[in-house]
């Protein structure tokens, strides 16, 4: 089970139908200076000896999006309590994103790869994933988060 912890002022219900997809609730960022969204999963429910990619699934409210159009957000992954470092910085705006492709999915949500990790033994512990944008010199608004997907990463072998 994936747990999403939201540490900012979010509305858990969207007022328009297009927000709803697989889940009855999504998180919509209203207006903040500092953004940090964390999720974690018990590593024992993942297959061992498997490389995983983590994907943030989201939308941007076109007219009400502030602070994401020309600025990158940081993604962090922490496996088994090892201190996390920023895995990558990515613009969530698909028109600004040339190297870290934001991709529109068939369900009309967008996704971006946060990073990857290897689950060697599947021992006790958690995988913690976070999105951070803590530059307080501007407001952030209009990000709608459906969740995080973990998928086995094709190793090409």
TrEMBL record:
Q: Does the keyword DNA-binding apply?
A: no
Give the range the annotation lists for the signal sequence: 1-19
Record's keyword terms, sorted: Signal
| Stored Pfam families | PP2
Name this polypeptide is given: F-box domain-containing protein
What species does this protein belong to?
Gossypium mustelinum (Cotton)
- Could you read off the lineage of the organism from its UniProt record? Eukaryota, Viridiplantae, Streptophyta, Embryophyta, Tracheophyta
């Amino acid at each position: 089970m994936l747990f999403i912890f939201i540490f900012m002022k979010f509305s858990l219900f969207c007022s328009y139908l297009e927000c709803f997809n697989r889940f009855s609730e999504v998180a919509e960022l209203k207006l903040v200076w500092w953004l940090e969204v964390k999720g974690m999963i018990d590593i024992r429910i993942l297959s061992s000896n498997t490389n995983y990619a983590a994907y943030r699934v989201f939308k941007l409210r076109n007219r009400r999006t502030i602070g994401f159009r020309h600025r990158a957000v940081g993604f962090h992954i922490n496996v088994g309590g090892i201190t996390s470092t920023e895995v990558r910085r990515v613009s969530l705006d698909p028109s600004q994103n040339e190297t870290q492709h934001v991709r529109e999915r068939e369900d009309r949500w967008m996704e971006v790869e946060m990073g990857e990790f290897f689950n060697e033994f599947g021992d006790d512990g958690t995988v913690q994933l976070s999105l951070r944008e803590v530059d307080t010199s501007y407001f952030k608004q209009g990000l709608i988060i459906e969740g995080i997907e973990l998928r086995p990463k094709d190793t090409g072998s």
